[in-house]
Design brief:
By secondary structure, the protein is mainly alpha-helical. It has a single domain, classed as Four Helix Bundle (Hemerythrin (Met), subunit A) (Up-down Bundle), CATH 1.20.120. 62% of the residues lie in helices and 7% in strands. It is built from seven helices and two strands. Strands 1-2 form a two-stranded antiparallel ribbon. Strand 1 and strand 2 form a beta hairpin. Helix 3 runs antiparallel to helix 6. It is globular and about 50 Å long.
């Protein structure tokens, strides 16, 4: 049996979102235990020209919901990027997971050749469903997820590989 587009996308995206939510819980608890203002973590960056934690989390959410919607041929839900706290980021992640759970395998399976066009700055990028998922979404999703993890780990939150991987 071959791997379907749904199996290659939605379950892994949900797992990553849930793992990130658990990581953010640890970060919030760490901030409280160490008497660190949450904004210190929320606005932390790995490098001056990189996005802060808040934007990394928003990007994880955007990658996941955009993937599922585009592969299913649906309008991508729009979430305003207004989160400024751990609870607001958790709410965004939960909303993204709920959206993904509402997508059925039948909506995504067979989307390997579906044309997908992204408008990026002043140009368009054209994909097939499969090249979009494998060459664009998954690398971007895991880049931003890893960067969020790294920002928090770099700032002293006690995280390990199993926090990133979640329940195996």
């Amino acid at each position: 049996m071959s791997l379907s587009m749904y199996q290659a996308s939605v379950p892994g995206l949900i797992r990553g979102l849930n793992n990130l939510a658990a990581i953010l819980d640890k970060a919030a608890a760490h901030a409280e235990a160490k008497n660190i203002a949450p904004e210190v973590f929320l606005q932390a960056r790995l490098a001056p020209d990189m996005f802060p934690l808040v934007r990394q989390v928003q990007s994880v959410s955007d990658s996941a919901k955009g993937c599922a919607a585009r592969l299913a041929g649906l309008e991508v839900p729009s979430y305003p990027d207004t989160e400024t706290s751990f609870p607001e980021l958790q709410e965004r992640l939960a909303k993204t997971v709920a959206f993904l759970k509402g997508i059925t395998p039948e909506q995504i399976d067979g989307s390997e050749e579906r044309p997908i066009t992204l408008k990026v700055r002043s140009r368009e990028i054209h994909f097939t469903g499969q090249s979009y998922l494998l060459g664009f979404v998954l690398p971007n999703f895991y880049f931003h997820l890893t960067t969020a993890y790294d920002i928090l780990r770099h700032n002293g939150v006690e995280l390990g590989k199993m926090d990133y991987l979640g329940g195996v």
